[in-house]
Amino acid sequence: MIAYLVNLATLIAIFGIAATSLNLLIGYAGIFSIAHAMFFGIGAYVAAQVALTVSPDFLVAALAAAVVAGALSLCLALPALRVRGEYFVAASLGLQMMASTIFAEAHSLTGGVGGLVGIPPARILGFDVASPDAFLVLALACLAVTLAVVRTLMRGSFGRSLMALRDSESAAEAFGKDVRALKTLVVVVGCFFVGIAGALFAFHMAFVNVESFTLEQSVVLMAMVIIGGAGTLTGPLVGVIALLSLPAALSFLPFIPATEIGTVQQFIYGALMTALMIFRPSGIVGLSRGAR
Amino acid sequence: MLLTQLAVAGIQTGMLYALTAAGFALIFGATRVFHVAHGATFILAGYAFLEAVQLGLHWSLASGVALLLAVAFGLFMDALVYRPIQKHEGSFFTVFVASFGAGIAMQALIQFFFGGGFATISVPLTRAAEVLPGLYIAPVFWVALAVVVVVFAAVSLFLERTHAGLGLRALSENPELLRAYGLSARRLSALAFVLGSALAVPGAILTTVTTGIQPADSAHVMLVSLAATVVGGIGSIRGAALAGLFLGLVENLVVSVVDTQWSQAASFVVLFAFILFRPNGLMGRAGAR
Amino acid sequence: MITRRSMLAGILASTALPAALRAENEPYVLGTLFPMTGLLSELGSIYANATALGLEHVAADRRLARPIVLKAQDSQSTPQGGAVGMSKLANVDRAPYVLVGLTGVAKAAEPIATRAKVLMVNGGGVGPDLAGLSPYFWNIIPLANQELPTAFDWMKRNAIKRVALIYLDDPLGNALRKGLQEGLPAIGASLVGEFSAAPSAQQFSAMIAKIREARPDLVYVASYGTQQTQIFKQLRDNGMTQPIMTYSVGGTPSVAALPESEGILFTSQVADWDAADPLTRRFVDGWRARYKDNPSTYAQNYYNAVLLYTQVLERLEKEGKPVTGDTLREAIGSGTFDLVGGKARFSATGAIDMPTQLNRVQNGKFEKAS
Q1: Which of A43, B14, C117, C186 has its CA 20 to 30 A from that of C54?
Q2: What is the ipTM score, two decimals?
Q3: CA-to-CA distance for B221 and B267, rounded, in angstroms?
Q4: What's the CATH number where C208 sits?
């Protein structure tokens, strides 16, 4: 039971980072990306490759993962600068679908559908941090850093400019904000952090393949942010805890056959997303005025 | 001959995409709702048809059942999901997320009852015969062609010649004007959902008998409709239909130059390129926001 | 709300309590990592049914001092699900012996199990690289490299020169592709086309157009699950009349149920459901009584995997050794076991030697093809 909870807590920390970083885009900047799993995946693949070929040191792997994810996020920044609304959603969908295909086909980089196996246990400066407890502490530390950075950024002038941008792009521009630089920067920062989450994920699972980084994963991440409450610091965390505890909670219900838990879970979060949008569009912890 | 054969396959796929995408574009054009649950409408219709046939119904009756369920789902979404949201806020993304959620829930529901695997009905119509040396065409190709021509002719006539059709086209542009003419925007929006959802049905039935249907098709149909609508130019039904046909052709023809596993990604490369370089699409109105 | 919370607390307590008490007489744990959902859920239910039948028979025999409990995880037919499931079985359920299936799933789960010294027994995956994968990995099914010679044999006799391959781009598909590339030249045949299908692909008319262009004498399909049946249907629908061949996965009920599968050839291990030995009779009759049908070879393998676990445990009990991945491994590597189909030994690379045969789908049933 303890081992199970430690495992769950580690996953919550990892997805907490991913959802918090997506919240930067969706909640604070109004960039509705459905391609976040792509950058989560890039982080995981880079970390796995670094661990397999260069060094199993987590710091090295995570830094490489974050930098590459941040750099490649320019693919997402490009359409974000050119189009908005439904066009951007469509663009990010297109990007996500292309990325899934590349993940599945670029055998030399990603191992194809078979994935990268045998990722070595994580170490930090020579110390073994692969035991479940140590790794949980590591994941929580990364989450804390992410939250602290996001909080500081959003309270500063960067955050205020972003929110001005989200609420009215033309007004922000009229006030002399550099809209292009702001948007690019927030996309890069968001993808930088999800790269770290990807690195944690790769070490935690000791295995990565394309299935973890498909459109479904992007939707789950989006659901976490929306259900918890976009544009708030704690919202995405609440969303992550709610969605990740769902399968565990469902497995306690004896009348649901074990084989159907995945389906029932999917139904619940789908229905929850719709119901929340109807009755409480700002999410569980969102302010009643509506997040946008 | 390979190219001709690929083109035939592309046209067959593309015609089904065209119908489905036209439904999506019609709903979007009239109501500004990004109805991504359209994919769920598609699989609902497919499975309804399948189940009805397996229960021993004649195919025409089974098609009726599929049509009924698809339309009911569209109306349900309009009345119980979109309208309440639009009443209090109605930002594009809120509606989009609600629709997405409903699509996922519907897909899960179908998977719960019918399983995740693909289901199909074997009919002789799908057996291809050699019409020219090396060119194989199944009778279902002509069926699809006939259906597409008839349906599009009917929809165009309706939109251009009838009072309600004209209202539908004006709905997104000038709701005030509609009120002045005594047309109810609410009823027109319901009409858009009825028509749009109905347009998904022929594609669903033909897919069920040719390649088989599975719950995961929901996402695929959603993506294709969305891509076709953007490529065709948001708001244009004709554009979406043409783009659907175009995407079907691209998916198949691209196989002659690259390996087969890349065929599906090709549509999304097209989509991404259009958004970056020609966001107004093939026939869109000027000024993508 | 209160009732729901107290109910949950009650359930939590009831699961926590036995955990505290059980230290004394803990049952043996048998873990399963089967594809209960996803592309291959059909196989998963065969695997699970066979395991259940085996456990029932073993429990009725009462030859072990302690009972065996089953801990099941769903691999969702995916490598990802396999990795998650295996880490639960190894770290939470503490299963020393886990039954796995499917090549991709097994390969993803293997490093996790090996790290935790968990013994894996595969009765479903046939990728040739599953042999010698890890000291803790054992196959109780002949692998594809044992199946392919039977396929080559038939091709040679029927003067097949040009083979087109449709393969799923995953570890199994790639393994079979390699096997064909290497084996076909020896019988004077060659691969005239290799066509990769993405796991989510469903429309194959473009691919089939290209296959027709390659003018093959035979189409070999190395996919599985719902995609495999879709490929069969679309090959026939698109006017391909050449023989279609596949590996042991052809022996699943959904293949037989599809009218377009008529005449499809597939290789599998030799199975004799009419053998008179008591083990076979108990298994086959038990299966027929319960599931109203003949068992498949997969069922035989997983039933055998349960028998194997029991016989190894029996030995360890007799020798007074603890049950760990290492003691189990040693016992399996050094013994001979009574299984359905005869006495069995394992090679040093963890493979089992079994003869294979060619089968054909005929009138919705599987028949041995000569």
Answers
A1: C117
A2: 0.84
A3: 12
A4: 3.40.50.2300
